[in-house]
Sequence to fold (145 residues):
Amino acid sequence: MANTFILSLSKMSKKNTPGIIEEHLKDLSRWSLYKKGMCNSCEGLCCYLPVEVKVSDLVRLNILIDFHLELTLKEQIKEATKHPGVSRYTSSSEKYTLTQKPDGSCYFLDSKKRCSQYENRPDTCRNHPSIGPRPGYCAYMKSEA
Fold:
Protein backbone atom coordinates (compact mmCIF):
# COMPACT_ATOMS: atom_id res chain seq x y z
CA MET A 1 0.00 0.00 0.00
CA ALA A 2 2.78 2.47 0.95
CA ASN A 3 4.63 1.75 -2.32
CA THR A 4 1.43 2.43 -4.29
CA PHE A 5 1.03 5.72 -2.44
CA ILE A 6 4.61 6.80 -3.21
CA LEU A 7 4.23 5.66 -6.82
CA SER A 8 1.04 7.69 -7.22
CA LEU A 9 2.83 10.71 -5.78
CA SER A 10 5.74 10.29 -8.20
CA LYS A 11 3.27 10.24 -11.10
CA MET A 12 1.67 13.42 -9.72
CA SER A 13 5.00 15.15 -9.19
CA LYS A 14 5.16 16.44 -12.75
CA LYS A 15 2.28 18.72 -11.82
CA ASN A 16 3.06 19.71 -8.24
CA THR A 17 0.98 22.84 -8.43
CA PRO A 18 0.28 25.04 -5.42
CA GLY A 19 -3.25 23.56 -5.27
CA ILE A 20 -2.00 19.97 -5.16
CA ILE A 21 0.62 20.88 -2.58
CA GLU A 22 -1.94 22.68 -0.40
CA GLU A 23 -4.33 19.73 -0.61
CA HIS A 24 -1.56 17.31 0.35
CA LEU A 25 -0.49 19.47 3.32
CA LYS A 26 -4.03 19.70 4.70
CA ASP A 27 -4.69 15.94 4.56
CA LEU A 28 -2.55 14.64 7.43
CA SER A 29 -3.58 11.06 6.63
CA ARG A 30 -1.47 11.32 3.46
CA TRP A 31 1.67 12.19 5.39
CA SER A 32 4.46 9.58 5.59
CA LEU A 33 6.24 8.28 8.65
CA TYR A 34 9.56 10.13 8.56
CA LYS A 35 12.65 8.16 7.66
CA LYS A 36 16.18 9.50 7.43
CA GLY A 37 17.07 10.57 3.89
CA MET A 38 13.52 11.33 2.72
CA CYS A 39 14.33 15.02 2.34
CA ASN A 40 16.80 14.28 -0.47
CA SER A 41 14.03 13.35 -2.91
CA CYS A 42 11.20 15.50 -1.58
CA GLU A 43 9.54 18.63 -2.94
CA GLY A 44 10.16 20.26 0.45
CA LEU A 45 6.52 20.48 1.42
CA CYS A 46 7.41 21.29 5.03
CA CYS A 47 8.64 24.59 3.55
CA TYR A 48 5.05 25.33 2.50
CA LEU A 49 3.79 25.25 6.08
CA PRO A 50 3.58 28.54 8.03
CA VAL A 51 6.75 28.95 10.09
CA GLU A 52 6.60 30.68 13.46
CA VAL A 53 9.93 31.85 14.84
CA LYS A 54 11.37 33.41 17.97
CA VAL A 55 13.63 36.45 18.23
CA SER A 56 16.63 34.13 18.60
CA ASP A 57 15.79 32.64 15.19
CA LEU A 58 15.64 36.10 13.62
CA VAL A 59 19.10 36.84 15.02
CA ARG A 60 20.42 33.54 13.61
CA LEU A 61 18.88 34.47 10.22
CA ASN A 62 20.59 37.88 10.45
CA ILE A 63 17.22 39.63 10.22
CA LEU A 64 17.85 41.20 13.62
CA ILE A 65 21.22 41.86 15.21
CA ASP A 66 22.21 41.99 18.87
CA PHE A 67 21.59 45.74 18.90
CA HIS A 68 17.89 45.11 18.23
CA LEU A 69 17.63 43.02 21.39
CA GLU A 70 18.13 46.19 23.42
CA LEU A 71 15.13 47.89 21.80
CA THR A 72 11.60 47.84 23.14
CA LEU A 73 9.34 45.06 21.88
CA LYS A 74 7.46 47.54 19.70
CA GLU A 75 10.73 48.71 18.11
CA GLN A 76 11.92 45.12 17.63
CA ILE A 77 8.69 44.23 15.86
CA LYS A 78 9.00 47.28 13.62
CA GLU A 79 12.58 46.37 12.68
CA ALA A 80 11.85 42.67 12.12
CA THR A 81 8.80 43.27 9.94
CA LYS A 82 10.80 45.62 7.70
CA HIS A 83 12.53 42.50 6.39
CA PRO A 84 10.68 40.92 3.45
CA GLY A 85 11.12 37.47 5.03
CA VAL A 86 9.00 38.37 8.09
CA SER A 87 5.27 38.86 7.59
CA ARG A 88 3.95 39.55 11.09
CA TYR A 89 4.25 39.31 14.85
CA THR A 90 1.62 37.52 16.95
CA SER A 91 1.50 38.86 20.49
CA SER A 92 -0.45 35.90 21.93
CA SER A 93 2.34 33.46 21.00
CA GLU A 94 5.14 36.04 21.10
CA LYS A 95 6.37 34.73 17.75
CA TYR A 96 6.98 36.07 14.28
CA THR A 97 5.72 34.37 11.13
CA LEU A 98 8.00 34.04 8.13
CA THR A 99 6.67 35.30 4.82
CA GLN A 100 5.24 32.83 2.35
CA LYS A 101 5.63 33.46 -1.38
CA PRO A 102 2.53 33.54 -3.63
CA ASP A 103 2.89 29.78 -4.25
CA GLY A 104 2.78 29.20 -0.47
CA SER A 105 6.45 28.34 -0.07
CA CYS A 106 8.75 29.91 2.50
CA TYR A 107 10.47 33.14 1.59
CA PHE A 108 13.82 31.37 2.03
CA LEU A 109 13.07 28.38 -0.24
CA ASP A 110 15.14 28.68 -3.42
CA SER A 111 14.24 27.67 -6.98
CA LYS A 112 15.72 24.18 -6.41
CA LYS A 113 13.34 23.65 -3.45
CA ARG A 114 16.16 23.92 -0.93
CA CYS A 115 16.52 26.31 2.00
CA SER A 116 18.77 29.24 1.21
CA GLN A 117 19.33 29.67 4.96
CA TYR A 118 19.81 26.00 5.86
CA GLU A 119 22.76 26.55 8.22
CA ASN A 120 20.86 29.38 9.95
CA ARG A 121 17.35 27.92 9.71
CA PRO A 122 14.91 28.51 12.59
CA ASP A 123 14.39 26.01 15.42
CA THR A 124 10.94 25.19 14.01
CA CYS A 125 12.59 23.91 10.83
CA ARG A 126 15.47 22.23 12.66
CA ASN A 127 13.01 20.25 14.77
CA HIS A 128 10.65 19.21 11.97
CA PRO A 129 9.17 16.59 11.78
CA SER A 130 9.55 15.97 15.53
CA ILE A 131 7.20 18.91 15.95
CA GLY A 132 4.47 20.13 13.65
CA PRO A 133 0.94 19.21 12.64
CA ARG A 134 1.67 15.44 12.86
CA PRO A 135 4.83 14.77 14.92
CA GLY A 136 7.05 12.06 13.46
CA TYR A 137 5.42 12.34 10.04
CA CYS A 138 6.17 14.56 7.06
CA ALA A 139 4.24 15.66 4.00
CA TYR A 140 6.63 13.81 1.70
CA MET A 141 6.05 14.30 -2.01
CA LYS A 142 8.59 13.02 -4.54
CA SER A 143 10.49 15.81 -6.25
CA GLU A 144 9.96 16.60 -9.91
CA ALA A 145 13.71 16.79 -10.51
Summary: Residues 1-14 have pLDDT under 50 and may be disordered. Residues 2-12 form the longest helix (11 residues). The first strand starts at residue 32 and ends at 33. The beta strands are 32-33, 52-53, 86-90, 95-98, 137-138.
